[in-house]
Design brief:
Shape: elongated
Pfam family, one: GGDEF
Organism: Paractinoplanes atraurantiacus
Helix content: 55-70%
Distance between the termini: 65 Å
CATH topology of the largest domain: TIM Barrel
Number of strands: 19
Protein name: Diguanylate cyclase (GGDEF) domain-containing protein
Largest sheet: 8 strands, mixed, barrel
InterPro entries: Biofilm_reg_signaling, EAL_dom, EAL_sf, GGDEF_dom, Nucleotide_cyclase, Rev_trsase/Diguanyl_cyclase
CATH superfamily of the largest domain: EAL domain
Keywords: Membrane, Transmembrane, Transmembrane helix
Length: 692
């Protein structure tokens, strides 16, 4: 499978930007005339600075011992191989020469150390092919760090000599701390001044500081070794090699942890790191792609073909995304594109349609064409400084909005009603209640009887969700569904409802009164594909026959992704679970879908039933739906029956069952038991029934 991974230059460049293995600044490495020009300027500046230092302290340099010149030479040599931490900025380059220049600053002062450090930085800059400005940036950081070290050493009169005690050791640690604070403090100030993001993962920064501290504290060891004999000083190169291996291994681990094993694309961690690393002036857009009907490919052709399809999708996306953007596989059949140069929602939509077109061409596997499409949610970074988690959450919400509306692309809008702070707070409370699963969480089920019109008998109930919020009071099912459905909380809510309803069905069956209960499921539940497994497990664990459970789906859920929904409800139908199409007449489902789907009944929306006694148009719609259901062999159930006249009109039209306040309001299971014991069927006069 590795051979099939995308090798395109865009993905590789962006991944290398997030976690390089060898050299920083690979996107700015100079070649040809620019490199020669940078080399001349860098060395010219180094000679000028060192010349000024020599002229300013000619006598002092002449009196320096051989140990100084040996350590200076080693500092220049080791900087031919600088150490790199896993990102691309100059502030993350660790020069091994600091081991020697820190020791020189402690022993012979700032000027002597700076003269060596300037030459060493020039060597490192030329070796890494950096522009002059980056080399100057690096030189400035180390100059300030050495100045801070020298200031601390002078303040406490620290000098490394033959008599070195515990106080001197602690003061040396203080000097090293001053070096680290000065260098990285300056780097952060400069990054902020040029509008670069300075936040870094703590583990990555920890490796950098640990390696820097190890190099600095090797300095006093080098000085002590020099007093024993200069021949032992080069032995410190072995310790420097060990530090280099530590830094390199940390970088390789960081790189590996940010790569998707199947496709070779950056993964979710890489996405978060890329969002954090963007400049403040950039406007970001995150496009979340969820493949449609991917489960069908896995079921029909096998998971190996599904994996090959994911690799090919990754290859196509990486091929059409420019180098300055990032393609990511989030997991499963979800991909994301982080666009760094967008001009608002119109520009993001253009990118989304471009990605959709790239997936429109069929994929060929062993001579078999496989068509793939994707629902795309777009989230725009409204303010600088946002993180990847927020963008992902918003893009996921937009993606589910697109699925529910039957659109391919949707943009997250913070001003929409379902994104209001009030609803977000309600969603957080609901998530907490579902995860705690406490007996007093306020989440309960009410049941409304469904009555056979011809006989007046109770043929089933519909389970309706209620939540008594500790502060808001009773929250109705419509509000709960609007809040939860675009989010992963919907899965938790459905699991809770299915569990409670199945447990109640088992109790009724044990009490000798088996009854069918209908449960509403959302588009998100049907798209997940595993709802059939969850239902099967519940029925088996409670010993409930499948024909006692009925699931209701809406037209919007059906049309958001008809093929995926068809696979799910077909499996449920084979298990013996009846499927009802809820709110029929209010959506836009076609007769073709009605003919193909394994439905047991259609429910006529209450908006038509309530008006059929006074509005001829509503009455005509209700009669037409009943006739259509009869022709297709489906039950017709009317919702919102609130008076006897409507009941009689439904009977004349041949409707099979009805529910509404005319017979009973929704009630808890305990009240339903009392109601059933007192209920006597209301039989209509024979004249009110249809002649058939």
């Amino acid at each position: 499978m590795d051979a099939a991974r995308p090798r395109n230059s865009t993905a590789n460049r962006r991944l290398a930007e997030l976690c390089p293995a060898v050299e920083p600044g690979a996107d700015e490495r100079l070649n040809g005339p620019k490199r020669r020009r940078a080399l001349i300027v860098t060395w010219g500046l180094a000679f000028v600075v060192d010349g000024l230092l020599w002229l300013g302290g000619r006598d002092g340099f002449g009196e320096l011992p051989a140990a100084y010149w040996l350590m200076g030479a080693l500092a220049v040599v080791v900087d031919a191989r600088p150490y790199v931490v896993a990102n691309r900025r100059a502030s993350s380059v660790i020069l091994p020469s600091i081991c020697f220049t820190f020791a020189i600053a402690l022993a012979w002062g700032f000027g002597a150390a700076l003269a060596v450090q300037i030459v060493a930085v020039a060597v490192a800059g030329v070796r890494m092919r950096q522009p002059v400005r980056r080399t100057l940036h690096l030189a400035l950081q180390h100059t300030v760090a050495l100045a801070a070290t020298s200031a601390v050493a002078a303040l406490v009169s620290l000098r490394i000599g033959p008599r070195y005690d515990w106080d001197d050791a602690l003061l040396t640690v203080a000097a090293a701390t001053a070096w680290i604070v000065a260098r990285y403090g300056l780097a952060a100030v400069v990054a902020r001044a040029v509008a670069e993001r300075t936040r870094t993962r703590w583990r990555q920064r920890g490796v950098e500081v640990l390696a820097t501290g190890a190099l600095l504290l090797l300095g006093p060891v080098v000085l002590a070794t020099a007093q024993v004999g200069l021949a032992f000083v080069p032995l410190v190169l072995l310790a420097l090699h060990a530090v280099h291996r530590m830094v390199r291994s940390a970088g390789e681990f960081e790189r590996a942890s940010r790569v998707d094993a199947l496709t070779g694309l950056p993964n979710r961690r890489a996405l978060h790191a890329s969002v954090l690393s963007q400049g403040r002036g950039k406007r970001l857009a995150l496009l979340l792609l969820d493949l449609d009907r991917f489960r069908t490919v896995n079921d029909a052709l096998g998971h190996s073909v599904g994996d090959r399809l994911l690799v090919e999708v990754a290859r196509r996306l990486a091929a059409v995304v420019p180098a300055h953007d990032l393609v990511v596989r989030l997991g499963g059949d979800e991909f994301a594109v982080l666009a760094t140069r967008v001009d608002g929602a119109p520009g993001a939509r253009r990118i989304a349609h471009h990605l959709a077109e790239a997936l429109n061409r069929p994929f060929a596997f062993d001579g078999m064409p496989v068509d793939v499409s994707a629902s795309i949610g777009i989230a725009l970074q409204r303010e600088p400084g946002g993180d990847g988690s927020t963008l992902l959450r918003q893009a996921e919400t937009a993606m589910y909005d697109a699925k529910q509306r039957g659109d391919q692309v949707a943009v997250y809008g913070p001003d929409a009603a379902h994104h209001s702070p009030d609803r977000l707070a309600l969603l957080a409370d609901l998530r907490h209640a579902l995860r705690e699963d406490a007996p007093d969480d306020g989440i309960t089920l009410f049941y409304q009887p469904q009555i056979a019109i011809a006989t007046g008998e109770v043929v089933g109930v519909e389970a309706l969700l209620r939540w008594r919020h500790p502060e808001r009071g009773l929250v109705g099912p419509e509000e709960l569904i609007r809040v939860a459905e675009p989010t992963p909380v919907m899965r938790l809510l459905t699991e809770r409802v299915l569990h409670d309803v199945t447990a109640q069905l088992a109790q009724w069956r044990e009490a000798g009164r088996p009854m069918r209960a209908a449960v509403n499921v959302s588009a998100r539940d049907l798209h997940a594909g595993d709802i059939a497994d969850r239902v099967e497990d519940l029925l088996r664990s409670y010993g409930v026959p499948a024909d006692l459970l009925q699931l209701e789906i809406t037209e919007s859920a059906l049309m958001a992704d008809p093929h995926r929904v068809l696979n799910t409800i077909t499996r449920l139908d084979r298990m013996g679970i009846a499927i009802s199409l809820d709110d029929f007449g209010t959506g836009y489902s076609s007769l073709q879908h009605l003919r193909r789907l394994p439905l047991a009944e259609v429910k006529i929306d209450r908006s038509f039933v309530l008006g059929m006694a006074t509005d001829r148009g509503d009455a005509a719609i209700v009669r037409s739906v009943i006739d259509l259901a009869e022709a297709l062999g489906l039950r017709a159930v009317a919702e919102g029956v609130e008076d006897e006249r409507t009941w009689r009109l439904l009977a004349e039209a041949g409707c099979h069952a009805a529910q509404g306040w005319f017979h009973a309001r929704p009630m808890p299971a305990s009240d339903l038991a009392v109601w059933l014991s007192r209920y006597r069927p209301v039989r209509l006069p024979r004249a009110a029934l249809p002649s058939s």
